[in-house]
Every structure is written in structure tokens, then in C-alpha cells.
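> call design_seq(struct)
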């Protein structure tokens, strides 16, 4: 890999809103989750923003919405979620930001704490070829039958310090040795809105904060990181 990396957080960065929160609301609206999950959803979102929830508790809460059902069951719901909820919340400014890095020849990576089941179609819609996401565990089905999601995560969570390790692991899978991975990070761009992403922002050579939360804005000002405000009116 010789091209510079352009890494993008998804929720409240390229997307106006949070995929996990929106997914939970979508499932309740369509009768796939009980309405009492809305209060828990709001509390989880608040705890994420304040940085008080653990990566495991956060990830398990949302991966748990998939439990007991197969990928085939979720396939049409994922598509409806993308079309009805996600695509209208991707502003033209986000697409233009991604396009600038694509035109510069950079390797595009979407790195999100949200699980792959929810975000895989979003990455494709943004024409971002590489996705690093939290993974949902899939149980083996009977012979000749599809397995079901267990409602649990698997592997390292792609959140906070986990985003740095998962990126290192991804670079190693591309065939880069340790020295080359360090060089890739030195030349990498990363865009995020959240203080939860400070570990990866600090690890790359070109961090940019996007419509940042208050904790991240304070850090960005102290470190003189660029602050990008996207036009979210379109």
C-alpha cells in the first residue's frame, strides 16, 4: 500500500445522526423491538457522548438488537434502514469530503464503533471500499441452514483504543510490516466528531475534527487541530 489513508468516522461525522441510535428507533417504529428500548437507547447515547459507557456495554446493547435472527431475515430491513433513514442523513458536504480524498488517490476507510451489519451498506453507498467495524457473532446453523446472530459481539471492539488496534490489524492484513504501518499512520488523515475517537486522532499525522462535541473541541483547540464544519442543510 503506497497511497495515503483517508479514514472517516461515520456517526455524526459523515452521517447526521448516530447509526446505532437511529437503528434502534427504526426497529421500534417497525415493531421489531419493544417501545421501552427507546428510553434505554437515549440513555446509552447520552452515556456514549459523555464517555461514561464502556465499549463492551455500548457495543453489546446495539448488537443485541440482532440476536436470534438470521442474516436473511435482516437483509430487507437493512436495505429499508439505509434507504429510509441513512441516505437522507448523508449531506452533500460529506460526499464532497470523501470525493476529495478519492480524487487525491487516497485509500478510503470507514472506521466505526457501530457494527458491520448496520454499516456495511452505508460504506458501499458512500463508495468507501474498506470498512472497519465492530463485528456481530453468528452462531452455526444446522447442516444446510443459515446461522443466527447470537446478540453478542466477537473480536476486538472498534471503539476508543480499539480503533487504533483494529487499524493496525487491518494494515497488517494488507501486508504492511510494523515500520510501514507506522509510516501509514504518520501520513493518514482521520475525521471524527467525538472525543471517544481521541486515541485514533492522536495516532494519525493529519487529524481533523468535524462538528466536534465539546470535549473534542477543547482538545482540538489545545492541539491546534483543524476544525471542519459541514453544511448539513442538504
Amino acid at each position: 500500500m503506497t497511497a495515503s489513508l483517508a479514514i472517516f468516522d461515520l456517526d455524526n461525522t459523515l452521517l447526521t445522526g448516530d447509526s446505532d441510535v437511529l437503528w434502534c428507533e427504526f426497529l421500534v417504529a417497525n415493531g421489531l423491538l419493544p417501545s421501552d428500548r427507546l428510553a434505554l437507547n437515549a440513555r446509552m447515547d447520552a452515556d456514549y457522548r459523555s464517555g461514561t459507557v464502556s465499549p463492551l456495554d455500548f457495543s453489546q446493547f446495539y448488537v443485541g438488537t440482532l440476536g436470534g435472527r438470521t442474516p436473511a431475515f435482516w437483509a430487507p430491513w437493512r436495505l429499508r434502514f439505509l434507504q429510509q433513514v441513512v441516505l437522507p442523513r448523508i449531506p452533500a458536504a460529506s460526499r464532497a469530503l470523501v470525493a476529495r480524498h478519492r480524487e487525491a488517490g487516497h485509500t478510503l476507510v470507514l472506521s466505526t464503533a457501530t457494527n458491520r451489519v448496520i454499516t456495511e451498506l452505508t460504506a458501499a453507498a458512500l463508495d468507501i471500499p474498506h470498512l472497519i467495524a465492530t463485528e456481530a457473532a453468528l452462531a452455526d446453523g444446522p447442516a444446510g441452514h443459515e446461522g443466527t446472530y447470537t446478540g453478542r459481539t466477537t473480536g476486538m471492539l472498534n471503539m476508543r483504543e480499539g480503533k487504533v488496534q483494529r487499524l493496525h490489524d487491518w494494515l497488517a492484513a494488507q501486508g504492511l510490516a510494523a515500520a510501514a504501518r507506522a509510516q501509514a499512520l504518520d501520513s493518514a488523515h482521520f475525521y471524527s466528531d467525538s472525543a471517544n475517537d481521541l486515541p485514533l486522532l492522536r495516532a494519525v499525522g493529519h487529524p481533523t475534527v468535524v462538528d466536534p462535541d465539546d470535549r473534542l473541541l477543547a482538545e482540538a483547540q489545545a492541539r491546534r487541530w483543524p476544525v471542519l464544519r459541514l453544511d448539513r442543510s442538504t
